Amino acid sequence: MTTTIYSARKIITMNPARPTASHVAVRDGRILGAGTLDELKGWGKHIVDDRFADLVLMPGFVEGHSHAFEGAVWRYVYCGWFDRVAPDGKTWEALRSLDAVIARLAEQEKALPDAAAPLTGWGLDPIYFGNKRMTREDLDRISPNRPIGVMHASFHILNVNTRALELAGLMRTGVNHPGVPLGNDGLPTGEMKGPEAQGTVAAHVGLDRAMMSGDERGLRDFARLCVRKGVTTATDLANPLPPDTVEMMLRVTGDASYPARIVPLRRYLGDDARGTIEAAAALAEKSSDRLRLGLVKIVVDGSIQGFSARLRWPGYYNGAGPGLWYVPPQRLAEALDAALEMGVLVHCHTNGDEATELVLDTMERALRKHPSPDHRFTLQHCQLADRAQFKRMARLGMSVNLFPNHHYCWGDEHYALTVGPERAERMNACRAALDEGVPLGIHSDAPVTPLAPLFTAWCAVNRITASGRTLGQTEKIGVYEALRAITLGPAWTLKLDGEIGSIETGKRADFAVLQDDPLEIAPENLKDVRVWGTVHGGRIFEAAKI
Amino acid sequence: MTLSHGAPKPVTLISGYLGAGKTTLVNHLLRNAGGRRIAVAVNEFGALPIDPDLIEQASGDVLTLAGGCICCSFGDDLTSGLVELAARTDIDCILIETSGVALPGAVAQSLSLVAGLKHEATLVLLDAETARKLARDKFLSDTILRQLAEADLIVLNKTDLVSDDARVDLRDWLATTAPRAKIVETAFGALAPEIAFGAYAPSAFVADEPTTLGGAGPQSQSFEIERTVHVARLASMLAAEQAGLVRAKGFLRDADGWKLLQIVGRRIDITPARAPQDGVGRLVCIAHGAPLERARIAAIIQGCSFPNPSS
Fold first, then answer.
1. What is the rounded CA–CA span in Å between residue A379 and residue A383?
2. Are residues A413 and A520 in the same domain?
3. B101 and A326: CB-CB below 8 Å?
4. What is the predicted ipTM?
5. CA dihedral of residues A161, A162, A165, A169 (deg, nearest 10)
6. Per the domain annotation, does B255 fall within a domain?
7. How far is it, in rounded angstroms, from Cα A7 to Cα A11?
8. What is the DSSP letter of A279?
9. Phi, psi of A288 (to 5 degrees)
10. Which of A490, B133, B255, B264 is the S-S candidate for B121 at Cβ 3.0 to 4.6 Å?
11. CB atoms within 10 A of CB A27
């Protein structure tokens, strides 16, 4: 039973009773207290560790909506518009033209040992190339014989080459699908939009669906990325969680050196709502400190940029249809009823405001049947909610996890195309959520956008889009509020705020170790705060050595 | 790499909101498969998608069913599931039971992505008791109306639970809501497999007398046609409401060669075909509910025939 007292340049506790401190005492992986050295000496025999004396400690960041696939996706070639750091610490430089993307893929292609092996890229975002579309001919320049696929940053579009289309049996006329644009020759251009279109070619270009959920190396790499970004608890939202995946995750996270706590949510699919909730409740029994099971995610609608989110009147700015339901309302009702009855925590993905409305209506009825004072049911993304809906969330005891990164990456497109100027300005309305008293988390949806809570906080504070437009001045929040939304806020949505999310007596010794002070740095530079690493349950992980 | 063998597999979509009777219908069709080896594709094995006595063996994502049929779950990856089914040589046709909120038109479009499959028919089931209420629902209205608008055949189910007046009202409403579709009424999902899958060549082509297909409603009439016919004109007349049939299938000689004609509801599909060995055209018409008058169909065929070159 060793007690270690760490000194720091500053400790931002997120505990309002004691907002900052100079020292924190740790015993058995938990926090004895934060305060002055003299105060902490009272705990008895201890050692003082000054390794963080020049650094700033915060509670370890909590990523309330990410996918562990962020770890596995790095086995593909990064082709994105922004610099991005891989699990091994290598920074992959931004690619600012289609030619640059082709050049990087061609260079990586040379390293592939097997002549028939697929070449896979990810992170492409051609909206920044003046919307010049990639075609199969572009990718054919790399290799006519090898199947090649490049996934877009949004994961809604996959570009493939001619060989991949041949393997999928799609180099023919007669394809009639809105997700497969055809060229003047009547043949697919190689752009595959949406899951149905992608499903035909994904396996041929090396996009293995098993890797999305049950990949051991990916889970290890995901935790390395967590360390680099100060994250100590991250969700995997969601995972089908078959038994062998659960066993793998328990084993991997159980390694003495595994540096993160993973919270996988089980995805609801199919017609057996009650069965899903029961299965999740049974999974909760298997939880360990670093793998928290028992939560459920329900996807209610699609995505805004895919025009499949359910929007209320007047719908999409460009006149696209009303979107798609991904779960029948009756099944949603059955699932929420069963979950309230059994005390299973449910997060609902709603992008469009009509999907949010459905969950609110359904929740209101379910709560009348099963009054539950502390259910913590959370709306995920919830990008288009208006003030009236935030008020209802507050009354119904719901929480929200908004998506400011999306606002940054695709806000310009929402302004011009999907929802139009007025609603684009109120998207991801963090200010409204806090004003109306809705517990708030903010997220990256990694790998859709990079796992980096300080970047997410920066997005919520500045509301700047990729083109530099300030989108929704009145929905900005302050730096401290944003820091809360990457610590205690998401911890609340996972019912873990009693354990993590602040530096105070009794909580887990989970810290983000920073080289700059996020409260001192100019708010417009918040994303540039450097991360030294993390402390997880008292174990120290330096990003440079992970 | 080959993706399929032989003729494309016909795919029938079974759509409709929860409670319309999709699962009951699927089980009924499996019990009355008539030798067809059916692959049923569902989202996920929920609470009993298939009656337990039909299941011979369960392994992973595939249930082996009586009579050479199977049932598989595709999860959230429909196209990958269909690619696998298209490659199987041990099945004759595919039934997709879509989720209650899926739009069948979108699923039908997805079929064009998979080589070796052919969209045969879209059946949208409707619970006669709750249909009008669902169509006004705050959240579901547009989904239900789009499902109906995309139907080839609307299976109006649970008609035993509504009055005759209510049934007539419902049919009038459907005539404007689902102008593309024809309507068949059933109770307990008891739909003749010929209506779901089409006539089962070749045996269906030999009957001369009207054949009752099981149950009170459906019946078929077969015709041998030696003359050359204007297939497109014949098709549009057969697909019209007055002809009184819900499906038709034929191999017919047109002025520019042999054609395979398929009619489902009002949808017409004409494709080039190989000549039959005996050089005789054949047509099977299937009706449901009202009797199918042989003389009337014969007159339509006569009216669409070219003068016989030898006479």
1. 10
2. yes
3. yes
4. 0.88
5. -170
6. yes
7. 9
8. H
9. -120, 180
10. B264
11. 18
